[in-house]
Design goal:
Blueprint (H helix, E strand, L loop, with lengths): L5 H31 L4 H42 L1
Helix pairs in contact: 1-2
């Protein structure tokens, strides 16, 4: 039997999903606004900012996956140690 605290883990996933979607939506909005700007420093800066937000969302997704895997491994170790 695997002991999993589903309440905290599930809420963490919801918070992560909300934050990840917020980053992606902000990146899309900034990119749309950047397309309307004339070529130049402001447009390039907006595009870099949008790219950074998109990369941040991807990095957080990777980190969340790593944390979820570590939590599962720790819970397995606790169950094995209690036997």
């Amino acid at each position: 039997m695997y002991a999993v605290n589903t309440g905290t883990f599930t809420m963490g996933k919801v918070v992560f999903l909300y934050r990840s979607l917020a980053y992606r939506n902000a990146a899309a909005d900034i990119l749309r606004k950047a397309r309307k700007l004339p070529r130049g420093a402001d447009r390039s800066a907006a595009r870099r900012y949008a790219r950074a937000l998109r990369d941040l969302a991807q990095t957080e997704a990777w980190l969340e996956g790593r944390v979820a895997d570590e939590l599962r491994a720790v819970s397995r170790l606790k169950v094995a140690a209690s036997r």
